[in-house]
Amino acid sequence: TEYQTILVERRGRVGIITLNRPKALNALNSELMNEVVGVVKEFDVDEAIGAIVITGSEKAFAAGADIKEMSTKTYAEVANQQFFGAWDELARTRTPIVAAVTGYALGGGCELAMLCDFIIAGDNAVFGQPEINLGVIPGIGGSQRLTRAVGKAKAMDMILTGRNMKVDEAERAGLVSRVFPKEEALAKAIEIAEVIASKSLIASALAKEAVNRAFESGLTEGVRAERGLFYSTFATDDQTEGMAAFVEKRDPNFTHR
Ligand code: HXC
């Protein structure tokens, strides 16, 4: 398939999506959204893909929603067209998604990174929700996911002032899971995705769902959900195989069944 705004690659069991609008610092327009969401949905139902990496360029993961596309829109247009609503699809995927962020992850770019399951960052990464400077507010989940990721104090600070956060602060605050030199960040993210993709796909999907319950519900409800998901792993061949391999002191051969 030909894409206008992204590059798509399969490397073993890892699907890699590279945002590719270099002249606009990977600003997210509707076409890019539709291409990314479409490929993620294809990867998500493909048993040959066990993890997805979304990345940008060294200078910019994505510098936000495309301001030129948005600038002339009216309330009726954004509301009636559910402008940017399709991004919510990423939150419904089963396959783990790793964001590899170097350079700017601003506005919708920061929100896209947070829609992924976790963020691997280069040491030049910069995160921010500068929407307030444009007279708007985050619209792809930023006010919710940033607050859950870094807490109310930093989220309010960033969203109300529009200031950026460099990678050290982002790591201290828990927004990113690991930081690497910028030249290595993508390769490391792919290695990490390969590790994830080497596991049972069913177990990873259930593990992801369980962690997401912690994000989205109270403790008692989350623990109950986890227990049910845990029990269901005993219906899989991969549970039998994984435990047999341990007992027999060999590597497991997961079949994603
Ligand atoms: C459209 C953008 C863009 C964006 C950069 N460009 N960001 N185009 N939308 N969000 C374009 C510039 O217009 C320019 O193109 C080219 O990319 C290079 O950008 P420069 O500004 O020349 O680069 P630099 O001086 O290095 O500054 C980098 C930057 C700056 C600090 C990241 O570009 C910037 O502040 N961008 C906007 C960041 C932002 O406000 N993001 C939030 C958007 S609102 P030309 O053709 O002019 O040379 C948002 C809402 C989400 O995301 C919710 C939606 C529902």
UniProtKB/TrEMBL annotation:
CDD domains: crotonase-like. Keywords: Fatty acid metabolism, Lipid metabolism, Lyase. It catalyses: a 4-saturated-(3S)-3-hydroxyacyl-CoA = a (3E)-enoyl-CoA + H2O; a (3S)-3-hydroxyacyl-CoA = a (2E)-enoyl-CoA + H2O. One of its GO terms (biological process) is fatty acid beta-oxidation. GO terms for molecular function: 3-hydroxyacyl-CoA dehydratase activity. It comes from the Bacteria. Its EC number is 4.2.1.17. Belongs to the enoyl-CoA hydratase/isomerase family. PANTHER family: ENOYL-COA HYDRATASE, MITOCHONDRIAL, ENOYL-COA HYDRATASE-RELATED. Could possibly oxidize fatty acids using specific components. This is Probable enoyl-CoA hydratase echA8. It comes from Gordonia alkanivorans CGMCC 6845.
